[in-house]
Amino acid sequence: MRKKERQITQDEAYRILENAEYATLCTVNADDGAPYGVPISYVVKDRVIYIHMAKEGQKLDNLKKDPRVCVTCVGQTLLYPEQYSTDFESVIVTGRAEFVTDRGEKMEMLRILCDKYGLPDGGVFLEKKIEGGVDRMEIMKIPVETISGKARWRKPKPPLPAQP
After folding, report:
1. Are 69 and 26 in contact, with CB atoms under 8 Å apart?
2. Of 88-92, 149-153, 160-164, the least confident
3. Residue 32 CB burial class (10 angstroms; 0-12, 13-18, ≥19)
């Protein structure tokens, strides 16, 4: 890292990763080896990243051929337009994607994803959606091999959004 004073601890990096809304998943293109990045919704459990995807498509083709990934996210930011500057926090993770094959684990991860991005306490409707969708998608887990983060806050950092 070029600016060592902005480096944060691994625990701080995990906190940012766990709280960021979205991330970018970078894979190796199966066709030509070029980089391929796609925005993702995700959750982190026990320091493992979980994502869901369709059973077909470029992202899945790439991961089948080469499971190496890089995941990046930006947490909170505070713009200073008059200074052409920003306070920020960001994280970079590397790992290897693995298919989740256990149906129970897939359903658990879908519940956690729905808790993060959906309405609180979805009840019977949510369970029906999960039960109906679990076999129509892939769930991938990415055990973190490396994680690094950096941040700069010149003013007090904004509080994290309230959890539902």
Report:
1. yes
2. 160-164
3. exposed
Q: Encoding tokens for residue 146?
A: 């490396």
Q: Are 73 and 20 in contact (CB under 8 A)?
A: yes
What is the architecture, at CATH level 2, of domain 4-102+137-150? Roll (2.30)
Distance separating alpha carbons of residues 66 and 135, to the nearest angstrom: 23
Q: Half-sphere exposure (CA, 13 Å, Cβ side) for 113?
A: 23
pLDDT digits (tens, 9 = 90+) for 42-81: 999 999 999 999 999 999 999 999 999 999 999 999 998 9
Do 142 and 71 meet the contact criterion of CB atoms below 8 Å apart?
Answer: yes
Q: Which residues contact 60 (CB under 8 A, 6 or more apart)?
A: 53, 54, 138
pTM of the predicted structure, to 2 decimals: 0.88
